[in-house]
Amino acid sequence: MSEAKIIDGKQIAASVRADVAAEVARLQKEHGLKPGLAVVLVGEDPASKVYVANKAKQTVEVGMNSWEHRLPAETSEADVLAVVDKLNNDPACHGILVQLPLPKHINAEKVLNSINPDKDVDGFHPVNVGRLWVGERALVPCTPTGSVILAKSVLPSLSGLDAVVIGRSNIVGKPVAALLLRENCSVTIAHSRTKNIEDVVKRADLVVAAVGIPEMVKASWIKPGATIIDVGINRVPSENGKTKLVGDVAYEECAKVAGAITPVPGGVGPMTIACLLRNAAQAAAMIAGVKSAFA
Ligand SMILES: Nc1nc(=O)c2c([nH]1)NC[C@@H]1CN(c3ccc(C(=O)N[C@@H](CCC(=O)O)C(=O)O)cc3)C=[N+]21
């Protein structure tokens, strides 16, 4: 069996960012519009801080305004809601991302639902979820958008394919299923209660793994030649006493059976941030009521 093609998420994310930079330049030139993205981070989680800093850097690189609101872990829910409200009413801000997870004393659903849906660059607000499922123009969650772009990089048409999504979260599983349905896939959502999950996955031409269980998907589950998009980012202990990142797919063995596969890191992760920037540019155009290159 030959080795699968490795889908280079870093490279494809760079090309998405180049498209965003071109769109930002066009919005500036044609409409005097400079998109702005605000990120709200509550607490001191070190991984979140690195990730938020990375986002801010890439936001500036594509020519957008970037703001970071770092609030202490003990910030009250009312104070977080007040920050969101201020950003909702700030005409220079077109995108708002509240970094998850939030501290336990804050009701995340309440905070996310307080974001103006037109500035909801995560696409998590129920209004955007509804728009996505009925096929209206929407801000679509970033990781699902990135996953579909990666799948289409090796499968130009997804029409008629059997797609199996493993995982049913609001952040990835459900929206990626909606996007694949829109691409005319026959979509199955498998999850922790699915009977004979390996047999279900084995029917798939396209597998999207988003369960959060390290290396759960085995080579014996994969139809030869299938495309595998691995959304998992799990930090696990490695031999040298440090930690390493692994996906939800047992990469080495599955790469021997699949036709194409995304690595972790360097697969879906970089696409998430690139699609966030894309959403911010789209939100700015939509709020201004001008044509958008993206949706
Ligand atoms: N409101 C909200 N929206 C999010 O989109 C959101 C969030 N909260 N909270 C945290 C998670 C996590 N997340 C990642 C994005 C990119 C990488 C990424 O670029 N990963 C790289 C490198 C990872 C590394 O080396 O640590 C890779 O996979 O190659 C990872 C994780 C977005 N999240």
UniProtKB/TrEMBL annotation:
Pathway: One-carbon metabolism; tetrahydrofolate interconversion. The keyword Hydrolase applies. Catalyzes the oxidation of 5,10-methylenetetrahydrofolate to 5,10-methenyltetrahydrofolate and then the hydrolysis of 5,10-methenyltetrahydrofolate to 10-formyltetrahydrofolate. Homodimer. It comes from the Bacteria. It catalyses: (6R)-5,10-methylene-5,6,7,8-tetrahydrofolate + NADP(+) = (6R)-5,10-methenyltetrahydrofolate + NADPH; (6R)-5,10-methenyltetrahydrofolate + H2O = (6R)-10-formyltetrahydrofolate + H(+). GO terms for biological process: L-histidine biosynthetic process; methionine biosynthetic process; purine nucleotide biosynthetic process; tetrahydrofolate interconversion. Residues 7-122 form the Tetrahydrofolate dehydrogenase/cyclohydrolase catalytic domain. InterPro entries: Aminoacid_DH-like_N_sf (IPR046346), NAD(P)-bd_dom_sf (IPR036291), THF_DH/CycHdrlase (IPR000672), THF_DH/CycHdrlase_cat_dom (IPR020630), THF_DH/CycHdrlase_CS (IPR020867), THF_DH/CycHdrlase_NAD-bd_dom (IPR020631). NCBIfam families: PRK10792.1, PRK14186.1, PRK14188.1. This is Bifunctional protein FolD. Residues 141-285 form the Tetrahydrofolate dehydrogenase/cyclohydrolase NAD(P)-binding domain. NADP(+) binds at residues 167-169, 233. Keywords: Amino-acid biosynthesis, Histidine biosynthesis, Hydrolase, Methionine biosynthesis, Multifunctional enzyme, NADP, One-carbon metabolism, Oxidoreductase, Purine biosynthesis.
